[in-house]
Amino acid sequence: MSAPWVVVGLGNPGPRYAGNRHNVGAMVVDELARRTGSTLKSHKARAVAAQARLGPLPGEPVVLAVPSSYMNESGGPVSALLKFFGAGPDRLVVAHDELDIEAGVVRLKRGGGEGGHNGLRSISQSLGTRDYYRVRVGIGRPPGRMDPADFVLRDFSAAERKELPFLLDDAADAVEALVRDGLLEAQQRFHSPR
């Protein structure tokens, strides 16, 4: 029996950060939990997690999780989750916000750099590898000279909030496609112009 996929959504804990752009990865996992009728519950790996199945029946076994730590300490919980569920980095999918992708666009990749993303950096350090899957949710660049750190820790604007359900839907579809059909097929679907 192969290990389940571990799908982690990155964000910061608590209501103060809940609507931030930086928490869009956690929002994607919330959407997947909603779709699968799962409830994320406290897990000893310093995360909230649920076991579910993604895709058409019988579905792929997955663990949906959001670290309970702050973003820059995501590596410990992610590493502990993989260990607990007997999964390697090759079964890890991390959903996260991406400044270098236009707002509203979803991209998938495996490996590569962290692009200054502290959550990804922490995960790569904890796992000793960058070779895991990422579902990159575009939030665009900050306006004018705004510091990117300030931008990601702000809530989505009113206009962005109108589009957010569609973005979360796309990102959740991308996770499902990746788990079900593999990276190349998922990339062909989400990277081609629509």
TrEMBL record:
Catalyzes the release of premature peptidyl moieties from peptidyl-tRNA molecules trapped in stalled 50S ribosomal subunits, and thus maintains levels of free tRNAs and 50S ribosomes. It comes from Nostocoides japonicum T1-X7. TRNA binds at residues 17, 70, 72, 118. Its EC number is 3.1.1.29. PANTHER family: PEPTIDYL-TRNA HYDROLASE. GO terms for molecular function: peptidyl-tRNA hydrolase activity; tRNA binding. It catalyses: an N-acyl-L-alpha-aminoacyl-tRNA + H2O = an N-acyl-L-amino acid + a tRNA + H(+). It is found in: Cytoplasm. This is Peptidyl-tRNA hydrolase. One of its GO terms (cellular component) is cytoplasm. The record marks 97 as: Stabilizes the basic form of H active site to accept a proton.
